[in-house]
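To the wet lab folks,

You asked to see what we're planning to order before we commit. Fair enough. Below is the target structure as C-alpha cells, and below that is the sequence we designed to fit it. If anything looks off to you, flag it before the synthesis order goes out.
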C-alpha cells in the first residue's frame, strides 16, 4: 500500500503536459516579423543593467575587465538563447521556460521554473525603480534624498526615510501601469523607445573613442599615488591595478552580476502566437538580438572604463556620471534625461510577463484559480498589482541594489539551466503523438519490454529513439547535472585547488572522468529525426556547456542571496504541495 502511494506521488511530480497539435491560428493576427522580434528583444534586454553596472561591477568587482565580464555573461546568455530557440522552433506556442519544462521533464520542475521566474521579474522591476530613483535624485542634485532625511528622519527610522521615495514612486508607477497597460503595448511606441535607447548608448560609445585613454586599462601604483589614494599590493578596496585589478575571481563575480543585464530575450517566447513564421523568426530573433546586445554592452563598458579610472566610480554610481568626470556636464544631463524617460516607460512593461505566467500556472491548476482571469479581469489585475507592490516594497526596504542584481541573475540562470536540460532530453526522446491518455500510458510502459545491456549503452540497436534510449538519456542527464553541480562547487569553493593540493585535483579529475563517460553514453543514443528550422548544434556538448556555465556563475553568489531564494522557494513549495499537486489539471487527466 505504501509503495503504491509513493509510486502515485512520484507519478504526479513527473506528469508532462501534452500540447494540442491541431490548433489553427489566424494568419491575419500574425504581424511580427523577424526584425520586429529583434527590436522587441533588444528593447527588453538593453535597459537597467547597462545603466547601473558602472557602480556595481566596475568600481568594486572587475575594473576595466568588466568588458570581459559582459562578454562572458553575453555568451552565457547566447548559449541559453540557442536552447530557447530550438524550443521556439519545436513548440510554436506562447509560453516560457515554464511551458518547456512542463512538456519535457514534468510538473514539479515546471512549477519551480515558473515560481522562480516570477521572483526574477519582480526583482528586476525593483531594480528599475532603484535606477529611476538614482537618476531622478542625481538630476536634482541629491535634493530628494536630503529632503526626505531632513523632514522625515525625526519621526521614522533613518533607513525608512532614506528609501521612502522608492516605496512611493514604485506604488505610483505600478498603479499607473494599469491605466497605460494597452497604450504601452503599442509596437510603434516600443520601437521608438528602443531607437532612443540605442542612440543614447551610441553617444556614450562614440564619446569613449573621443575621450578614452588606454592608460586607464593599465593603472599602476604610481597612478594611485598621484590620485592621493592608499596603495595596496594585494586585492583590496582598489585592487592590484592593471586590466584585472581584482583578479580572475573578480571577473567571475562580475560575470555573475552582469548576467542581469541580459535578462529579456525570454519575452520573445510570449509573442510566438503573433509571429508571422514562428518556426524561423523566433530562433533568428533571439540569436540576432543577443548578438546585438553583446556588441552594445561591450562598446559601452569599453567606453566607460577608458574614459574614467575605475577607482573614481563608487557603488551606486550611474552611467551618465562618467561625463562629469571628463568635464562634459551638458552630456551628463542629456544622457540622464534620456535614461530617465526610457526607465519610466520600461517600468510599465514588467507586469505583463507576470500576468502571463500567473495565468498559465493558474489555468494548469498549479496556482489559485483567481489568477486564471488575470488578463481579462480588471479587478483581479488590480489586486495582483497591489500584492506585487507590497512585495516589491518589502524587497526595496530589506535588499540593496547589489542584492536585487544577484537575485535577478539567479532567477534567470536557474530557468536557463532547466531549459538546457530539456533540450538535452527532448532530442533523444521518441515521438509523442497526442492521441489521448492511452497512447501516453503505452509509451511510458514500453521501456519494460526492452532490456538494458552494457553494450546497448554505447551501441544501441535502433537508429531512432526508443522508450529505453530516452530513459537512458533522462537518467544520464540527471546524473550529469548532479556531477556538474559538484564540479562547480569544488572549482568555486575549494581553496586548495589553485595551490596544487592533490585532494581537490583528484576530485576534479574523477568528476571529469564520470562526466565524460556519461556524455559519451548520451552521444551514442539515437536522436529524433523530426525536421526543425533550428536545432542546437553540437549536441550534447553545447547544452552541457550552458548548464556548466550557468551553475558556475550561480556559485559566485553570496550565501545571503541563496538564503533569500530559499525562503521564496519554501513559500512556493508550500503552495504546490498544499494546493497545486491536488488541483493539477494534467494530473487529473491521468
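Sequence we intend to order:
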Amino acid at each position: 500500500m505504501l509503495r503504491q502511494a509513493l509510486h502515485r506521488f512520484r507519478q504526479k511530480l513527473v506528469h508532462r503536459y501534452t500540447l494540442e497539435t491541431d490548433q489553427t491560428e489566424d494568419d491575419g493576427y500574425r504581424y511580427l516579423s523577424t526584425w520586429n522580434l529583434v527590436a522587441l528583444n533588444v528593447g527588453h534586454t538593453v535597459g537597467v543593467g547597462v545603466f547601473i553596472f558602472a557602480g556595481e561591477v566596475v568600481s568594486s568587482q572587475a575594473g576595466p575587465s568588466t568588458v570581459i565580464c559582459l562578454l562572458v555573461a553575453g555568451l552565457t546568455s547566447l548559449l541559453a538563447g540557442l536552447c530557447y530557440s530550438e524550443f521556439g522552433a519545436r513548440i510554436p506556442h506562447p509560453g516560457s521556460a515554464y511551458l518547456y519544462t512542463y512538456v519535457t521533464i514534468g510538473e514539479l520542475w515546471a512549477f519551480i521554473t515558473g515560481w522562480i521566474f516570477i521572483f526574477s521579474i519582480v526583482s528586476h522591476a525593483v531594480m528599475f525603480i532603484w535606477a529611476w530613483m538614482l537618476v531622478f535624485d542625481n538630476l536634482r542634485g541629491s535634493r530628494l534624498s536630503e529632503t526626505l532625511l531632513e523632514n522625515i528622519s525625526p519621526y521614522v527610522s533613518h533607513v525608512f526615510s532614506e528609501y521612502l521615495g522608492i516605496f512611493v514612486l514604485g506604488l505610483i508607477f505600478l498603479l499607473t501601469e494599469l491605466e497605460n497597460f494597452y497604450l504601452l503595448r503599442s509596437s510603434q511606441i516600443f520601437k521608438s523607445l528602443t531607437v532612443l535607447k540605442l542612440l543614447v548608448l551610441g553617444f556614450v560609445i562614440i564619446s569613449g573613442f573621443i575621450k578614452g585613454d588606454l592608460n586607464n586599462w593599465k593603472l599602476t601604483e604610481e597612478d594611485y599615488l598621484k590620485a592621493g589614494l592608499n596603495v595596496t599590493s594585494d586585492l583590496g578596496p582598489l585592487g592590484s591595478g592593471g586590466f584585472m585589478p581584482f583578479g580572475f575571481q573578480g571577473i567571475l563575480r562580475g560575470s555573475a552580476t552582469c548576467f542581469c543585464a541580459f535578462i529579456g530575450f525570454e519575452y520573445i517566447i510570449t509573442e510566438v502566437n503573433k509571429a508571422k513564421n514562428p518556426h524561423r523568426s523566433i530562433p533568428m530573433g533571439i540569436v540576432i538580438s543577443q548578438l546585438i546586445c553583446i556588441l552594445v554592452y561591450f562598446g559601452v563598458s569599453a567606453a566607460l572604463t577608458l574614459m574614467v579610472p575605475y577607482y573614481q566610480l563608487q557603488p551606486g554610481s550611474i552611467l551618465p556620471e562618467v561625463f562629469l568626470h571628463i568635464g562634459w556636464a551638458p552630456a551628463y544631463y542629456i544622457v540622464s534625461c534620456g535614461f530617465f524617460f526610457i526607465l519610466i516607460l520600461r517600468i510599465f512593461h514588467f507586469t505583463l510577463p507576470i500576468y502571463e505566467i500567473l495565468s498559465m500556472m493558474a489555468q494548469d491548476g498549479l496556482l489559485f484559480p483567481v489568477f486564471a482571469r488575470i488578463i481579462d479581469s480588471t479587478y483581479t489585475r488590480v489586486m495582483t498589482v497591489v500584492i506585487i507592490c507590497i512585495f516589491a516594497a518589502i524587497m526595496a526596504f530589506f535588499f540593496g541594489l547589489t542584492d536585487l542584481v544577484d537575485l535577478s541573475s539567479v532567477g534567470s540562470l536557474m530557468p536557463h539551466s532547466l531549459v538546457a536540460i530539456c533540450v538535452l532530453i527532448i532530442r533523444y526522446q521518441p515521438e509523442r503523438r497526442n492521441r489521448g491518455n492511452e497512447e501516453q500510458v503505452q509509451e511510458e510502459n514500453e521501456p519494460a519490454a526492452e532490456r538494458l545491456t552494457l553494450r546497448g549503452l554505447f551501441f544501441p540497436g535502433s537508429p531512432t529513439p526508443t522508450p529505453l534510449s530516452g530513459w537512458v538519456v533522462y537518467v544520464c542527464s540527471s546524473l550529469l547535472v548532479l556531477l556538474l553541480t559538484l564540479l562547480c562547487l569544488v572549482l568555486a569553493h575549494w581553496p586548495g585547488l589553485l595551490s596544487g593540493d592533490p585532494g581537490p585535483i583528484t576530485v576534479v579529475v574523477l568528476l571529469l572522468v564520470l562526466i565524460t563517460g556519461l556524455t559519451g553514453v548520451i552521444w551514442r543514443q539515437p536522436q529524433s529525426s523530426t525536421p526543425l528550422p533550428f536545432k542546437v548544434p553540437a549536441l550534447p556538448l553545447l547544452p552541457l556547456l550552458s548548464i556548466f556555465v550557468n551553475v558556475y556563475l550561480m556559485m559566485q553568489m553570496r550565501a545571503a542571496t541563496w538564503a533569500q531564494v530559499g525562503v521564496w522557494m519554501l513559500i512556493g513549495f508550500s503552495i504546490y504541495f498544499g494546493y497545486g499537486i491536488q488541483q493539477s489539471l494534467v494530473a487529473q487527466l491521468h
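Structural context that might help your review: DSSP finds 24 helices and no strands in the chain. Confidence is low (pLDDT under 50) at residues 143-162, 231-236, 434-448.

Thanks,
Computational group
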